[in-house]
Specification:
single chain, 336 residues, alpha+beta, D-amino Acid Aminotransferase, Chain A, domain 1, D-amino Acid Aminotransferase, Chain A, domain 2, 2 domains, nine-stranded antiparallel sheet, nine-stranded mixed sheet, globular
């Protein structure tokens, strides 16, 4: 293991000691193996390459205040991966196998878990792909399930930093009856062009409206949308939105601290009435959004120098649970 400066860790790839790999063929999964080489050899006709049979998840393992290592809500990710698998005709990874993979790969790379107090964590990336040869349009006959790990630092050093967002009416994230509700690789390929355009124009994130009418807020490119107003936590309802584990967590915490929680359609015209808006996801938990532009319309929300009080409180509560600093009353943290 190379020496790591824990204080300078960002959110980017780094080689670790190994990843874990399982293969499905002839109707069942094998027992898996730890693999040191960070490369995968596959058939040139693999169904992931030709027909997009590729799904992934993201979660984190934390070195907690008591010295133990815990993963945050992995059962939710196992469930979501299973939902995705069924939608694109891949074999389901059973929850027991999923958790076994996490345990084995974390223990094999334990030296890469950032120490408690650094603000870092071990990012876990489960990946399920079709690796069997398939030329006709049909599911493959062989699949590979991998979990790779990467040590990452706090996404924002020095506190949550508000960002500007943009809406492009010429791009959609997912079709109304498509695969927006599952975590397939193709959804991210579809968003890359708009995402690069947004970054070039000075907007770290883009916000998508519903593909059918462009009237209702759906989600940011890689994160769910949340808004705060009048002591109410609001998040959009749509069959095209990916069910975020972070959003599910924040909704519960919002209720725990006395906020009303609403899951409902959010019309574009309502955006200006929110006192706080954020994007929520695994990497950062919450990203405050201080401005949203759509064509000539510019909406400014809260402060452009810091996070709003409600989102800050929600963020701190999640982090405290993840690092074992407060009681885990909902049983979210899974000990390795």
């Amino acid at each position: 293991m190379k020496q790591i400066d824990w204080s300078s860790l960002g959110f980017k790839y780094m080689d670790t000691d190994c990843h874990i790999r399982y293969t499905w063929k002839n109707g069942s999964w094998d027992s898996g193996e730890l693999v040191k080489e960070p490369y995968l050899s596959m058939h040139i006709a693999a169904s992931c390459l030709h027909y997009g049979q590729a799904a992934f998840e993201g979660m984190k393992a934390f070195r907690c205040a008591d010295g133990k290592v815990r993963v945050f809500r992995p059962q939710e990710n196992a469930f979501r991966l299973a939902t995705t698998s069924r939608r694109i005709c891949m074999p389901v990874v059973p929850e027991a196998l999923f958790l076994d993979a996490l345990s084995r790969v974390i223990k094999a790379n334990e030296e890469y878990i950032p120490p408690y107090g650094t603000g870092g964590s071990l990012y876990l990336r489960p990946l399920l792909i079709g690796t069997g040869a398939q030329i006709g349009v049909a599911p493959g006959q062989e699949y590979t399930f991998i979990v790779l790990v990467v040590p990452v630092g706090p996404y924002y050093k020095g506190g949550l930093q508000p960002v500007r967002a943009v809406i492009y009416d010429e791009f959609d994230r997912a079709a109304p009856l498509g695969v927006g509700h599952v975590k397939v690789g193709g959804n991210y390929a579809a968003s890359l062009f708009a995402h690069e355009k947004a970054k070039h124009e000075g907007y770290p994130v883009e916000l998508y409206l519903d593909a059918k009418e462009h009237k209702y807020v759906e989600e940011f490119a890689t994160s769910n949308f949340i808004g705060i107003k009048n002591q109410t936590y609001v998040t959009p309802e749509s069959p095209s939105i990916l069910p975020s584990v972070t959003n599910k967590t924040l909704k519960q915490i919002a209720a725990d601290i006395g906020l009303k929680v609403e899951v409902r359609p959010v019309p574009f015209e309502e955006l200006g009435s929110f006192s706080e808006i954020g994007a929520c996801g695994t990497a950062v938990v919450v990203t405050p959004v201080c401005e949203i532009r759509r064509g000539e319309t510019v909406l400014r929300i809260g402060s452009d120098t810091g996070c709003g009080p409600v989102l800050q409180k929600l963020y701190e509560r999640v982090q405290s649970i993840q690092y074992g600093e407060v009681p885990d009353q909902h049983g979210w943290c899974w000990e390795v």
